[in-house]
Structure formats: C-alpha cells, structure tokens
Amino acid sequence: VLGLRPSKYPKSFPLQPFSRFPQSLNGWTCLNIVACICFNGLIFYIAGVKGLAFLLLSAQFANGLHPLGMRQVQEHYFVKRGQPTYSVYPPFAALTLNVGHHVEHHDFPTIPWSNLPLLRKMAPEYYGKEALYSYKSYTHCLFEFLFNKGIPLSMLFDVDIETPFGPLSPQKANE
C-alpha cells in the first residue's frame, strides 16, 4: 500500500559484520555475548516472556516509519555508488547528539559529537554539498526510501568500494 517497502533491517543488519568480515572471537566479543545473555536472562527472570517480547517488539517498532527511525537507513542505504555511508543535517541535530554527522564520525571517531558540526564547517571540500551526497532531514530520507523506486531494497547493503579487508561486493542490485 502506498508503495511502502517491508523492513529488511531487523532481520539482517545485525548479522552483516559476520558475513562481510568474518573474525575470530576475541575477549570483548565474548564478554559482550555473555553480558547480552545475562541481561536477557535477568529480564526474563524479572518480567518473564512478556518482558522479552517487549524488547523484541520495541526493536521492531524502533525501525518503523517514524522519521527518527530512518537513522539506520540514512547511514547505510546506498543511494550513490562508491559512497558507503551518508550524513543527514536536520535543523534539530543537537537534540539527537549529532548522530546524523555519520561520515564525519567514521572519518574521525574520537571527535566528540558536539564538535562534529565544526569539523564539517572546517572541511567543506570533504563534507560539503558538492563533495558528498547527504540528506536535508530524516523526513527527506524517509520519503526517498519509501517512494524512490529507482533504488531497490537490495541496495541496503550493495556497495562497490574497496576496504582494507578487500572489496565489499555483496549481491548486485536488481537492474
């Protein structure tokens, strides 16, 4: 209805690192897995099946059609080949702790969120409108995702870029 697309994110996005860059388990990964199991067990002990169902449904609805739910799409839905991630610069960026400055964050992950807009202003040749494709708002991202039929859903993880680990070239988009 209305040309809406089903959500692929909740089912496949968390598993992408394992399929793209297989790695051996290290101490931090094992600690994370144990912590997740312990916290889920604690929630099950305190709230039962309803508590776990609440968490699962919350994660599903968090990826819904609300404009702020478009963050994952904005960051990783490939609308321009060769650009693996995108930024969005909404008027209320500070309210979301500048999470929309995604490209800047990946280039300089140690810069505090409060300084990412300054970084963008200091280097317009790298982060300006002419240098990178970006969204004006999360609503702009939402409408492009929902109604631009020229970009198939498979583009969510379809990229043509080189990385230190080799080329990222999962399934090609339907043409």
From TrEMBL:
UniProt KW Membrane keyword: yes
Domain Fatty acid desaturase: 22-133
Gene Ontology molecular function: any one: sphingolipid delta-4 desaturase activity
GO BP annotations listed: ceramide biosynthetic process
UniProt KW Transferase keyword: no
Pfam families for the chain: FA_desaturase
Top-level taxon of origin: Eukaryota
Protein name stated in the entry: Fatty acid desaturase domain-containing protein
Source lineage: Eukaryota, Amoebozoa, Discosea, Flabellinia, Vannellidae
